[in-house]
Amino acid sequence: MYQVLARKWRPQSLDDLVGQQHVTRTLRNAVEAGRLAHAFVFAGIRGTGKTTVARILAKCLNCERGPTASPCNECASCREITGGRSIDVLELDAASRTGVNDIRELQEVVSFAPVRDRYKVLILDEAHMLSKSAVNALLKTIEEPPPRVVFILATTEIHRILPTILSRCQVFEFRRISPREVSGLLRKVCDAEGIRVSDATVERIARAGEGSVRDSLSILERVLAFCGDEIGDEDARLVLGGVRTEALADLTRSMADRDAAGMLRVLDGVVEEGHDLVHFWNETVSVLRDLLLARVLPGREDLLTRSAEETASLEQASRGLSREDLTRAFHIVADLEPALRSSSQPRFLFEAALVRLASLGAVRPIEEMLADLEAGGTRDPEPTRSSPTPAAASEKKKADPLSAPGPAGSDASRFLEAVRRDRPMLGAALDQAAAVEVASGSIRISFPAAREVMRRVTEREENLSFLRSCAEAVLGAGFDVRVGSSDAAGAEGRGAPAPPRPSAPSTPSGDESPPSPSRPPAGADRQDLLDRARSEPGVRKLLSEFGARVVEIRPLEETPSTLVPPDSVATEDPA
Ligand SMILES: Nc1ncnc2c1ncn2[C@@H]1O[C@H](COP(=O)(O)OP(=O)(O)OP(=O)(O)O)[C@@H](O)[C@H]1O
Ligand SMILES: [Mg+2]
Ligand SMILES: [Zn+2]
User: Fold this and answer.
1) Is pLDDT at 93 greater than 50 in this prediction?
2) pTM above 0.70, yes or no
3) Measured distance CA(77)–CA(520) in Å, rounded
C-alpha cells in the first residue's frame, strides 16, 4: 500500500525529530526523572511535530519497557500507539467536537482508569476550537487532575487558548524548522527512497515549505508525481511555480545588451505564463543576487539558490555586465518592492525599472580602467564619449577654477562626471569640496575646514589613485590630482574656493594658488537656477540614477559644500 511520505517518515522516537531540541530535551529529562506535568500545550505552525511528539510521549509513558525516553517501538503498547489503535491513547479533534456530547465524552474518558497501560493520554488537536462549555469542562479536569491521565493540547493558534488553561499547562512552542535542517531530512528521505535530485532542488523544496516539515514533504511528493524518481532542476522549478530559467537568462542577456525592448518582451511572456509580478520580481532579485555572489565569491556555489547548470546559463547571459553593473541593477530592482506591492499599476513600475536598467551606461571596473591606462591608453570610460587627444589635453592652459560640478563641458565638470559615474560615493565626497580647479597639468581639490573628514576620505590612497586615473582618462596622460584645504594657506574667507591662477605652460600645478572669494549667483532667479542645475549632466545623472532631488541651491559663500549651479560661481578669466 502506498503511504504518503509524511506518514511514512513520521519520527518514531525523540531522536528522529528534526529541530525542536528545546522540546525533546526537556521531555526526555522529565520522563527520565519521573517528573512529568499532567497537562501540556504544544503550540506552533502546522507540520512541525506537535502530533508526532504527542504520540512519542505517549509511547515513552506506556512502553512495556518504560517509562522511558527511548520507547522500544516493538512492544504491543508501542505498536498500538504507532498504529493509532491504543485504547488508552486517544486523539480527539476539537474542531469537530464542540458539542455538549463531547464534554460528556471527555469526562467519561478521564473518569476511567487506563485499561491496560500505565497512563491514559488524551491528545486534543486544534484545541483552540473547543467550545466554551468544553473548555470549562476541560479546565475543571485539569484543575483536579485524575491520577494517571495526561492531557496534550495541540494548537496552531496559541493566542486563542484561554490564559486560565495556559497557566495550568506546561507550554512548548514548536518552531519553524530551518531550511538547512529540512534539506538534511529531505536528502535522507530521497536517498532512502532512491530518488535522484540535486542539492539545489532539495533546498528549493525545503524553502518552499516555509519551515513546515510536512509541507516540504508534500511538495516533494508533488514534484515526484510530476517527474518520477529522477527530479530535474528545471522540472522542479516549474512544479514549484518558478519562472523558467530560460526567461531569466533572456532577461539578463537583454540587460547586458541594454535592450529595453527585449526586457519588456520577457516581462510580457512571464506575465502571459501566469506568473504574478511580485513573484517575477522575487526571481529577478534572486538571479541578480546569485550572479553577484558568483562573481564576488567564486567557488561558493553552496550560497547560490540555483543549481550549477542554471547558474552557468545565467552567467553566460550576464557576460556583458560588470560587477558594478550587477550591483546597481540589484539595487534598482530590489528597491522596487514596496512600490510594487502597493501600486495599483505594478506592471508600469516594473516596466519603468526595466527601461531604466537598459538605459544605464556601462560601469567599468576601476581595475579594468587602470589596466587600460597601464597599457598606455587613455581610453575614455564611456564608449559614447570621445577621448581627449594629447593635443587637446596640452591645450588646457587656462586655469579652470570651479566649484562642483562646474559648467557642463568644462574640464572640472567632465572630471567630476567621470568620478561620479564610476564611484558615486566618492563623487558625493567631492561635492563637499570648496573648489575643484584644473590648472595646467593638475587638478586641485580643496575642502573647507568643516569638511575635513571628506578631505581625508578623498586623500586615501585608493581614492587618490582612482581620481588620478580619472583625471588622466578625461584630461590626458600625466594629469595629477592634489587634495588640500581651502582654508589653510591663505587668510581668505572660510570655504572660499581657490582663485584661478594665471597659467603659463610652465606652471607645475595649482598647488600654491591662494584661495579667493566667489560671487553669489547674479541675476538668476530661483526657478532658473533650479532648471539649470537640473539640466547639468552630472546632476541629471544623480537625479535619474539615484532618485535624487534638488533640494536647495545656494551661493558658494554661504555653504561651500552645497551643489552650485553652473555659472553661478565667479569664473574670472585670468588671461
Ligand atoms: N520536527 C520534525 N521532524 C521530522 N519530521 C517532522 C517534524 N515535524 C513534522 N514532521 C513530518 O511532518 C508530518 C506531520 O507532522 P505532525 O503531524 O507532527 O505535525 P503537527 O505539528 O501536528 O501539524 P498540524 O498542526 O498540522 O497538526 C510528520 O508525519 C513528519 O513526517
Ligand atoms: Mg497535528
Ligand atoms: Zn515499547
Assistant:
1) yes
2) no
3) 94
Quick one: pLDDT at residue 547?
Answer: 56
Residue range 204-228, pLDDT digits in tens: 899 888 899 999 999 999 899 888 8
CA distance 287 to 110: 58
d(CA 127, CA 505): 90
How far apart are the CA of 171 and the centre of ligand 2, in A? Answer: 16
H or E stretch including 155? strand 149-155
Q: Please determine whether the domains at 179-239 and 245-359 fall in the same fold group of CATH.
A: no
Sequence-distant (6+) residues with CB within 8 A of 197 are 190, 230, 231, 236
Ligand with an atom nearest the CA of residue 73: 3
Which ligand neighbours the alpha carbon of 42 most closely? 1
19 lines ligand 1 (CB under 6 A): yes
114 touches ligand 1 (CB under 6 Å): no
CATH assignment, 245-359: 1.20.272.10
Q: pLDDT value at position 1? A: 63
Measured in angstroms, how far is the CA atom of residue 82 from the centroid of ligand 1? 14
The per-residue b/e assignment along 373-392, b for 16 or more CB within 10 angstroms, e otherwise, is beeeebebbbeeeeebeeee
Nearest residue CA, atom 11 of ligand 1? Answer: 214
Q: Give the homologous superfamily in CATH for domain 5-174.
A: P-loop containing nucleotide triphosphate hydrolases (3.40.50.300)
Nine cell digits for residue 203:
533546498
Proximal ligand: closest to the CA of 81: 3
CATH number for the 179-239 domain, one of 2.60.120.20, 1.10.8.60, 3.40.50.300, 3.40.190.10?
1.10.8.60
What's the Cα-to-Cα distance from 487 to each of 324, 404, 465, rounded to whole Å? 36, 17, 24
124 Cα to the center of ligand 2, angstroms? 9
pLDDT at 546 over 70: no
Q: How far away, in angstroms, is 40 Cα from ligand 2 center? A: 14
User: Which atom of ligand 1 lies nearest, measured to the CA of 174?
Assistant: 21
Residue 128 · residue 157 · CB < 8 Å: yes
- In the chain, where the domains are located: 5-174, 179-239, 245-359, 364-575
